[in-house]
Automatic annotation (TrEMBL), chains A, B:
Any one GO molecular function term: GTP binding
Self-association state and partner proteins as the record states: Homodimer.
Enzyme Commission (EC) number: 2.7.7.68
InterPro entries referenced in this protein's UniProt entry, alphabetically: CofC, Nucleotide-diphossugar_trans
Pathway it works in: Cofactor biosynthesis; coenzyme F420 biosynthesis
Protein name as catalogued: 2-phospho-L-lactate guanylyltransferase
Gene3D superfamilies linked: 6.10.140.50, Spore Coat Polysaccharide Biosynthesis Protein SpsA, Chain A (3.90.550.10)
Pfam families, per the entry: CofC (PF01983)
Length: 208, 208
């Protein structure tokens, strides 16, 4: 199985700009990237970074494929190269809660296309086992990927995972990392002074 | 196994007040309740409603236990009555995405205490298999329940389910119901004129 982790340092995690500086967002995104790479390896697979620039792979313990196009054409180029001969998995680099168990469930689920939906209609991870399938990450990609697969007469399986559904984009997502994370990303937030803000309703975060 | 579904019609879903009237929130909460009861039955168990008032069970295809105290003491009374002799599951009535598969994973997970975390640190569903465990739903109850179990030397298992992690409290949660729901709650939202609002980032909802 070819496991690809798209990752770029160009204005990373822009929706966290209210709570983290650009340099901090870069460092935090890198910690999440490394947690995801570790989890993929612990699930028994060998990850490859899909980056926009060679420097994006700095410090990462994984080889990189460089493609400076947007996400959709870059991932589709990977599918064109590999999906004819092997399964291809695409795992986003901001899944800070991903565990080997959750990724094993993804990798082992049957179906021509296996989708782990993200909160808000995204596609946080998927496995493609048919050469005809192509991605479209724009908009509600979870729904679109299901439609595209159905239109091509491909079977689709959902992976029901809170951990894989949690991509870290917005300040409220940081609470999930503090609550459920176990790796470098959680450590980074704690070192940066973030802690849970417990009130009634859902918890948020505060920073010292 | 005793499966309890806490449910009240007193100011239900107050954080949806900006998008739904009180009467609408009552009707929507009832549709979610009925979806949860259906999913529990389809998972092979017999649900009991835990209500604050007898009328809360109106129209529900399940028996009701009435206890007008807040959630924590009402659930703890159920544990006191039943946990000595059988497993007790507590499943929130606003898990509009709950499926029989997701609930079966919950019911079948091993451990003295099994927790399905909710977004923002809540406890959306749990199974208790030890008479000494008591709940505390105030604040970040997921973390507290893990601590309480550890303090009592009980084993704790997490259930990693996007469907069980999605309690429907806030307007953005309605998008999840439109995307992933399959029952009465999704139908209710569609009939009420809600649809997905697809832009970049996470999708939201609009109403006609």
């Amino acid at each position: 199985m070819q496991v690809v982790v798209p990752y770029t340092t160009r204005d990373p995690k822009s929706r966290l700009a209210d709570v983290l500086s650009l340099a901090e967002r870069r460092a935090f995104a890198r910690a999440m990237r490394d947690d995801v790479l570790d989890a993929v390896r612990a699930a028994g697979e060998t990850p490859t970074l899909l980056t926009a620039d060679e420097s994006d792979a700095d410090g990462a313990d994984a080889p990189a494929v460089v493609d400076d196009r947007p996400l959709t054409p870059a991932v589709n180029a990977v599918l064109e190269t590999h999906a004819e001969t092997e399964s291809v998995a695409v795992v986003m680099a901001d899944l800070a809660l991903a565990t080997p168990d959750a990724l094993s469930r993804l990798f082992e689920s049957e179906g021509d296309v296996v989708v782990a939906p993200g909160r808000g209609g995204g596609t946080n991870a998927l496995v493609v086992r048919h050469p005809d399938f192509r991605v479209d990450y724009h908009g509600a990609s979870y729904r679109d990927h299901r439609r595209l697969a159905a239109a091509a007469d491909l079977s689709v399986t959902d992976v029901d995972s809170m951990r894989l559904s949690t991509d870290v984009d917005e300040p409220s997502d940081l609470a999930e990392v503090l609550l459920h994370g176990t790796g470098a990303a959680r450590d980074w937030l704690v070192d940066a002074g973030f802690e849970l803000d417990v009130a009634d309703g859902r918890v948020g975060v505060t920073r010292e």
